[in-house]
Amino acid sequence: MTHDAGRIRVILALVSAGSAAAVRADIHIEQIGRYETGIYDGTAAEIPAYDAASRRVFVTNSADQTIDIIDVSDPSSPTLVTQVDVTPWGASPNGVAARGGIIAAAVQTEPKTEPGSVILMNADGTVLSAVVVGALPDMVTFTPDGTAVLSANEGEPNDDYSIDPIGTISVIDVTGGAEHVTQDDVTSLDFSAFNDAELPGVRLFGPGASVAQDIEPEYVAVTADSTTAYVTLQENNALAIVDVPGKRITGVVALGAIHHNKKRYAMDCSDRDGGIGIKKRPVRGLFLPDAIAAYTAGDGKTYAVTANEGDARDYETFAEEERIGDLLLDPEAFPDAAFLQQDSELGRLNVTTTMGDVNNDGAYEELYSFGTRSFTIWNRRGKRKFDSGSDIERITAAALPADFNSDNAENDSFDSRSDNKGPEPEALAIGEVDGRVYAFIGLERIGGILVYDITEPKDVRFIEYVNYRDFSGDAEDGTAGDLGPEGIVFVSASDSPIAAPLLIVAHEVSGSTAIFRVGSARP
User: Fold this and answer.
1) What's the pTM value of the predicted model, to 2 decimals?
2) Residue 486, Cα to own-chain centre: how many angstroms?
3) What superfamily would CATH give domain 8-311+371-520?
4) Which of 237, 310, 357, 419 is most solvent-facing, going by the fewest CB within 10 Å?
5) Alpha-carbon span 419 to 340, nearest angstrom
């Protein structure tokens, strides 16, 4: 481990058996530039996109209700070009993507239960066209061939659950040019065809909601051949599979759960245990993934990778979260319930009340927590091929033992997130460097970026963990560095302004956008 100027770089052999068993230290990432909005905890830098032709980065800034355009022709000195006001089309931007000089932005309206918009603009910020999509467009992306823009429209309910719009996925045909896109080019796909279908394992639990209303599309990844999209349905703990050319949803796949009673899935689930306690626990973890990306592995097959952040529904009239200490546990399933429900054991861990009471008698035979504190590789059918298990918590514990499972909004918050999703792997990008494929995973709470070689899903290898957060600084005063990585984009060497691969990371809490150079590992 090395420490310099607030930077932490860790290269460790993995300590969890059965996952990434050895280190292949063939690349490293190093921060070379940073742009600051000066806005703390206002979601002033959430999702980034990069346009190679203009050498500009486009970042969603909900605090200012803008898309910020940043010149990175010199990545060591990024500068603001302009801000594009999105309020003519809605309330705030949620997602942005770029391809071939065209930038697409997803804009939610107010109230969020009304249809949102996708705007298309050029690299100077001139809006060329805008179309209406579903309620709460949360993420937008181009197909690799550039023929379509896809938008995941979450369709969240309002606070009292009196309005619950359907979740949709919009496919926008842009083959006629961005300036000519009209509403006729939009096809919004919904899940009404699944209203009467059997979807075992898919979490469908919204009060009075149909399947179409309950499903909430979160994030989209498109395969290299532009034919298939994988969409995370975070709250539903599922993936939707979309036939892009056919403009139809072909399936909904339940993701299941991992069992924390196995060593490889051990976790620290108490913020009151006085230290780092990564242990086996009688709790199941729901994946509930946020970001997703698709790639072609060394075996020539297509896989999807998810960052399993976890998320719960929490509204005025419906909330699914409860601490284990406040539940009635079935005495046969948990004969040691009194011990387990202590705050220093499982008592503080947040779990869902929508699952686990198997016989509906009010006592829980099983416990399901939010997120798996891991990232996962899935095959094209949604079958799990690799999961990082407890690696993330073990790596961060070794790297930052005094700041393990810290929150992203303040320092001196050691262990404060152990009872609630831990480090929260959230942001995700995949990139190829020198013939190897790497996953870059951003940890929303403690911060920093994990690098894994995922070229071979059967031989995934941890490379390094880098964190530029300054744990001696003050978050609100802007002296704590980068906080809350929310979105990552990988820039290939061929598209980079410095002919070397880059990572661009937007941090929603610190309101900063960091630029990393991806280079060969030091000897």
Assistant:
1) 0.95
2) 7
3) YVTN repeat-like/Quinoprotein amine dehydrogenase (2.130.10.10)
4) 357
5) 14
